[in-house]
Amino acid sequence: MVGATLETTPDGTVFRARIAVGACSEVARRLDDLEAALLGQQVTPALGDIAVAAHLSPLTPIGDLRGSAEYRLDAALTLVRRALNGLAQKELGSRT
Fold first, then answer.
1. Can you tell me the mean pLDDT for 13-22?
2. How many separate domains does the chain show?
3. Could you tell me the residue range of the domain that residue 37 belongs to?
4. Do the beta carbons of residue 58 and residue 31 sit within 8 Å?
5. What is the helix (H) or strand (E) element at residue 32, kind and residue range?
6. Is the pTM of this model over 0.90?
7. 65 burial via Cβ count (<10 Å: 0-12, 13-18, 19+)
8. Where does the pLDDT of residue 96 fall: very low under 50, low under 70, confident under 90, or very high at 90 and above?
9. Strands, DSSP E only, in 9-93?
10. How many other C-beta atoms are found inside a 10 Å radius of the C-beta of residue 67?
11. Tens of pLDDT along 30-58?
């Protein structure tokens, strides 16, 4: 599970970002380093590319018969990128 929100300036620059991942640790965790990396970035259709594996360091997934910890981290990164790209599309669409 990923929850994300962005606030931007009129020119499309990110000035506030909040991103949390659930079901990949005991409790949902915010991705503070990713939030910081997004500040000052211009919203583009590929905004999610800013997210990298190192941004998931607060997460502590378990491995079990349903999936390994590595799989869960990879899935979380994919979901974070999709969420950011979706927010970017929404933001860019509201400007046209």
1. 97
2. 1
3. 2-93
4. yes
5. helix 32-38
6. yes
7. exposed
8. low
9. 14-21, 29-30
10. 13
11. 999 999 999 999 999 999 999 999 999 99
Residue type, 84: L
Read off the CATH number of the domain in which 58 is found. Answer: 3.30.390.50
Summary count for the chain: helices (H), strands (E)? 2, 3
Give the whole-angstrom CA distance, residue 19 versus residue 93.
21
Is residue 1 classed as helix, strand or coil in its secondary structure? Answer: coil
Strand-strand pairing, 29-30 and 2-8? unpaired
